[in-house]
Amino acid sequence: MAVDWWTTGWLVLVALGLLWRYLTWGYGFWRRLGVPHPAPSVPFGNVADVMLARRHFSEVADDIYRQMEGQPFCGFYRVRQPVLMLRDPELVRTIMIRDFASFHDNFFHVNEELDPILARNPFFMKGEPWKMSTGGMLTGPISFPFLLHVAMDDAQHTYQSCKMMDGVEAQRICMRYTTDVVTTCALGIKGGALEDQKSEMLEMFNLILEPNTNSSIRFMITGAFPRLASLIRLRILPVEVHNFLYDVVSRTVAKRQHEGIYRNDYLQMLVDLKTKGYLDGSGQELAIFTDLDITAQVMTFIADGIHTSSTGMSYLLYELARHPDVQQRLRRELQEALHKHGGQLTYDVINDATYLDMVITEALRLHTPFSPMEKLCTAPYNLTMPSGKTVTIPAGTVVILPTSSIHTDPQYYPNPRAFDPERFSPDNKDPHGHMAFLAFGAGPRSCIGQRFALSQLKMGVATIVLHSELRPSARTPKAIRVNPKGLLRLCRDGLWLNFQPLHH
Ligand code: HEM
């Protein structure tokens, strides 16, 4: 059959035109609304480096944040999806607190049928189910003396392993520490992460928590193309992790129920809930509380509690190694508090350590573990431009809160790249700095593990600083490059430090 080159040429041109139309479809969204935005390019909009796994989303968002200086908000495109970025911390707080009713959902999408454990995590829940969720229980049952006991034990192990090695990777040490604290508090069983570096528990958590190409692709597809993800039945939690967790939890629950074992931990509270159908003192009855619900609660603790805290803790150790004066002052404060309270590292010692509070807050500001936050606008919302013009953001728009960019904006934190705990001293009344601190979010959906996180961070850091001196090693990075894979802002090159045992 003779080839009609003329017709073929036209068909190719039409196909290319349609493809171009598809790829650029929607790129007029911000222009039509009159919202300032950087020019998008085909095919990735403004996030090519994220899609090609060259940079972390927070770094690309930071470029846009700086490019749009002077604007309280701006738009950009994630591939073809229009995304609104709020640049003004006051506006951020307004939508997280006062106008929460229009922004109560996080953007991330999880398919309940495919990922029943993750779908029960309050972070991924939306609308009514979120309001009815039992996530608030997380902070309830953990008594400080119990945490203290575990943390002391584990921090001692951390110290021992540090003593044995010259130059250790702080992210790994801290991850093993928080894994042990969290698994002991959540499940009442030791993960053995510190003692046995190949603990099965740690390996399983690494499959979901460690940045890797597999999980970042799963997250990216479910985030950017939720319908496609459902169509190809893409799950976020690997099936082996689901089975492992479900198996560990249901076996432990059965053992406790059959043998009448009682422990003062989070799992016990969940077992009681399953047995009685209500939570003491809550006056609230639960319909059905299954082993899957219990696994999901435990998983929430693990997924949201281990890596966030270990990331914050490792960056703090890194800054202490680079700032011997700050480290020395912190050690002196802790030694004095120890002396005052009879030589035992207790809740009172930690409570008396104001400077410890300041250094932790400063580390979380400078190296915010989780950023940006992503919310969904659930009802049309009016925003006012600097010109006085009002624009209406339609329901369904994704809204980005670039916490790490706000935290390093000289407008709110002068000399923002410097590690300076004085910013958070009780005498420092700088209204901008404190208002702009958003490491745990704000409002009804802020981090429910904040108290727990700070407690485990304080115990871990205090024990290390009291027993060893932190110093930079030849491999300590001078500047931080964020690992492009994964949700959290981990250091790509590793936080290598030396731990020198102190002789008392
Ligand atoms: C330094 C450690 C931590 C940091 C920096 C951190 C940060 C955050 C942030 C920024 C959010 C989102 C807030 C928002 O959207 O407004 C969040 C939510 C959450 N965090 Fe944390 N977190 C930490 C530790 C923990 C721990 C230890 C747990 C559990 C034990 C936990 C459990 C949660 C949960 C369940 C949510 C979802 C709350 C909801 O949407 O209702 N976090 N966290």
Q: Could you explain how this protein is built, in words?
A:
- The chain is of the alpha+beta class and 504 residues long.
- The chain has a single domain (88-370, 402-501), classed as Cytochrome p450 (Orthogonal Bundle), CATH 1.10.630.
- The protein has 21 helices and 10 strands.
- It has helices spanning 5-24, 29-33, 48-51, 57-67, 89-98, 116-119, 127-132, 144-164, 170-187, 200-209, 213-224, 226-231, 239-259, 266-276, 291-322, 324-340, 347-352, 354-366, 403-407, 431-435, 450-467; strands at 73-78, 81-86, 105-106, 168-169, 373-376, 381-384, 390-393, 398-401, 468-472, 496-501.
- The strands form 3 sheets. It has a 5-stranded mixed beta sheet with strand order 1-2-8-5-3. Strands 4-10-9 form a 3-stranded antiparallel beta sheet. It has a two-stranded antiparallel ribbon with strand order 6-7.
- Strand 1 and strand 2 form a beta hairpin.
- It starts with a helix and ends with a strand.
- Residues 96, 106, 122-123, 135, 138, 300-301, 304-305, 308-309, 312, 364, 369-370, 373, 439-441, 445-449, 452-453 line the site of protoporphyrin IX containing FE (HEM).
Give me some keywords for this one.
single chain; 504 residues; alpha+beta; 5-stranded mixed β-sheet; globular; endoplasmic reticulum; metal-binding; Cytochrome P450 6a2; Cyt_P450_E_grp-I
Look at the structure and give the mean pLDDT. 85
CATH level-two architecture = Orthogonal Bundle
Structural class: alpha+beta
> How large, in whole angstroms, is the Cα Rg?
24 Å
Strand content: 5-15%
Bound molecules: protoporphyrin IX containing FE
How would you sum up the global shape?
Answer: globular
CATH fold title: Cytochrome p450
Lateral arrangement of strands in the main beta sheet = 1-2-8-5-3
Helix content: 40-55%
Largest sheet: 5 strands, mixed
In CATH, what is the class? Mainly Alpha
Low-confidence stretches: none
Number of helices: 21
